Amino acid sequence: MNLRIFAFAAITLGCSWACRAADQNAQVMEPVQRFFDALGRQDKNGLLAVLAPNIEITSVQQNALHRLSIEKLADAIAAHRGGPIAERIYQPQLHVDQDLAVVWAPYTFTINGRVDHCGTDVITLGKLQDRWLIIGLSDNERKDHC
After folding, report:
1. What's the rounded Cα separation, in Å, for the pair 43 and 137?
2. Which terminal residue of the chain, N or C, has fewer Cβ atoms less than 10 Å from its own Cβ?
3. Is 146 part of a structural domain of the chain?
4. Please, which residues bridge with residue 117 across strands?
5. In total, how many domains does the chain have?
6. Domain for residue 109, yes or no?
7. Is there a contact between 34 and 87 (Cβ–Cβ < 8 Å)?
8. What is the pTM of this model?
9. What is the pLDDT of residues 21-40, one digit of tens each?
10. CA 146/CA 17 separation, integer angstroms
11. Residue 42's CATH number
């Protein structure tokens, strides 16, 4: 009888921990998904709504480091007139420690449904005033091997 109680308690605690972790991961991924949804709509305000102010996107390309303010990136996305754009991430890996999270994921960026470039995104998030916000964006954009 005691063994059954122990097994039930172990299963309940395990489910409780796994359910909390899944909920936390969903909370972290929510602003990331909103960012990519806004990018696809070319919605500057939607992009900026999930970002901490005054951050930069950092891109490593061909042994060079490129930085761009998020405001300039949002302006460029909103002004794009070359057909529908989209960025899709795949198999994101999440690491969360209290109020800091990192999402590491391969991505493809398309224009008019055709792959323009690809790479890996590294998205850093911070939980500020009980809300997850993107506090850093990095990638290693490339045109080959997509």
Report:
1. 18
2. N
3. no
4. 109
5. 1
6. yes
7. no
8. 0.84
9. 678 899 999 999 999 999 99
10. 37
11. 3.10.450.50
